[in-house]
Amino acid sequence: MLGERKFLSTASRLAVILAPLLVASLLWASYRNHASSADPAKAVTAVRSSTPSSMSRETAHIDSSGSEGLSNAQSAIMFSIAPLTSLPAMTPPVDPDPVASFRDLVAVPPDTAREAAHIDPRRMRTIVDRGVVEYASAKTDGDRAKGAGLIQTAALVGYPPARDLLARNYPQSEAVRSVVPAKDVIRYALGPVMDAAATGEDSKQIFLALGQHFALHGQVDLFATQILTSLRGDSRPQLGYRIDTLLDLLARVPGACGALARLIPGEGEAADRECSFSQNLRKHIETTAPAREEEESKRRGLLMLNQPSGR
Fold first, then answer.
1. DSSP H or E stretch at residue 17
2. What is the tens place of the pLDDT at every residue in 219-276?
3. Are 303 and 162 in contact (CB under 8 A)?
4. Around 20, how many Cα atoms within 13 Å sit in the side-chain half-sphere?
5. 179 within 8 A of 152, measured Cβ to Cβ
6. Which residue of 43, 119, 263, 306 shows the fewest CB atoms closer than 10 Å?
């Protein structure tokens, strides 16, 4: 009986000692299990250290992809809770003028092959001299037309003396009229009149005589139409002053003001009696696109220069 009581006393003492140790072991196991679930990288690392070398490479791949996935998930969470004020720092700046940027993007680069070729004035002078000599020495209108054709070649590429000669002689020369289109000669005569730097009266008289020639032959509408076409998009200085000079001359050409006024939106019958539409004419000129007649003229002139008769 005495022995039994000693055994129970010893067992109770062991239980008191072992119970805390058992509880501590259970708590430690629970902590390790929670830590392994919260940090897959550490768990995989622990497993890798206890696996054979054949499994090491596989677990290394899992380690890498797991870390990357965790990193992406954390980044997504941080982005979703970021304030809206922080978004512009992570997005490209807004283009203030997207239309202009698009135009710049699709703009065609300049075509250097189409740039106007340099024309030697000395060559143009030689061609004009040849034309004058042929014209003066010719016995027939056909021969005179050949001389006028040489002068027209130089006029097309923009040589001012050639343009002056043709505009001056157009009304009285059948040979000149046969090789120089009306739209060309009107443009030749209009150029100096609309040049603010040209102060001489000679160019005005040439233009006036040409206008009276077209009016006499019932072609005043053609005269007015070509004038308006040549003036389209004119952006040179002193446009108002140049328009006043032009209208003063047209007032002396029968029917010219009325023909021009009928081509301008908003003009009435009063314009047939007087050239009083300077403001509307200026507005029309400034708001219409250039006809680019000079570019076309130079192209035609260069083609003629490349022909055997133009050299």
1. helix 2-38
2. 999 999 999 999 999 988 999 999 999 999 999 999 999 999 999 987 765 555 578 8
3. no
4. 3
5. yes
6. 306
